[in-house]
């Protein structure tokens, strides 16, 4: 038992030691650091659902002495009598050594024995990081029982550990098997170590979730074990009673001395908050939830808050709080989402949404299509003229060419671009903005080598049937230098 307690303590520390500083989600200089709720008995005062309990109607049971032929001391289990009931509330009440209370099943006389089984199910109401599950038996420990867990409330039951004097026969598991490095670390093992009929009362069985699992010493970097210790529900299935073999004679007194009785069902662990909260509280629907820090939210602090999507959500580790970071949207929006491609490309995954003031781009850093940045740094509409820009699509004050899809569309089109200084002087301000637009239809093949003269140009595309497109642009030398000859 001593060795066991020591292992428990070591493993408790692995999942995280409970020193005072650990409870704070920021350090002395206000930097985020890993934090976690205190270590508790998660089962305490939580009602266990038992599929069988003695006492309705009242029935007699006898205390096992281990000696045959001796007059047994017998008692009544009566569910309606507060002094004689043994309901499941006694599994998780205060465990008082001086005044033991226990849950008790019906006896073997009522058919309680393999292959009939009894389930004791504990709904924690929230995910916990489980360090151990401990049972204290009021009778002798069962010959075979198993512990199961659910990782999520709607998930499947998964075996945690088998205890059996007949591992192979009852559970098809190797007795005292172990897990080697590289093997599945989420497999349940079986042992016969705690399946002896003695002691006849007070025997403990404790299952430590991480013991014997190779990655336990690298817990922070083992998602497999992080999931393994996570549970929202714990179930104990009692499969076979231990007997002295004297039940074969069907003596009712003997059969009445075989039944399951458990005085304490404890689950050591912490409310699971992924290192982002130091306590769990009841929410408005009186459900237990983490009080999340580090810009996280959710029952388990399992996601980043809206607008904190600069990098993917991660658990906090001893070395890194992995807090969620805000998106940078230049003050143009309070909405963004995590964009994994953007994150791979730039190291920042926050993709802004619904950028205001005609801005666009992952960080609201540029103007919307058809808008350009004016000299007061605001995005203004291009107001491209339908004539000349063909379709109002893209404009940019820094692009110096004009194209029309009409040119590409009809083979007989002739196009020209010539200085239009005289004309431009005549256009009103609104139209002048429009002539700054160029449209970037990639299908138009014709580009003109333009002389590096700053000024207004007229672009004209004509077919045999007349003018197809007319546009104006203002060139700046640096813009024209990008125009490639064809
Ligand atoms: C046990 O739970 C009940 C309600 O579920 C609550 O009223 C009571 O205060 C709890 N007792 C302790 C000691 O926490
Ligand atoms: C008892 O638990 C086992 C294992 O989860 C399950 O297969 C079985 O259906 C349960 N029985 C009852 C009566 O709930």
TrEMBL record:
Pfam families from the UniProt entry: EGF_laminin, EGF_LMN_ATRN, Laminin_N
Per UniProt, the keywords (alphabetical) are: Basement membrane, Disulfide bond, Extracellular matrix, Glycoprotein, Laminin EGF-like domain, Repeat, Secreted, Signal
GO biological process assignments: animal organ morphogenesis; axon guidance; tissue development
Q: Which residues form the Laminin N-terminal domain?
A: 31-270
Query: Where in the chain are disulfide-linked cysteines found?
Result: 355-364
For whether the record's keyword set contains Chaperone, the answer is no
Its signal peptide is 1-20
**Where in or outside the cell?**
Secreted, Extracellular space, Extracellular matrix, Basement membrane
Gene Ontology cellular component list: basement membrane
Main localization category: secreted
Q: Where is the Laminin EGF-like domain?
A: 327-381
What is the role of the protein in this entry?
Answer: Binding to cells via a high affinity receptor, laminin is thought to mediate the attachment, migration and organization of cells into tissues during embryonic development by interacting with other extracellular matrix components.
Query: In its UniProt entry, what is this protein called?
Result: Uncharacterized protein
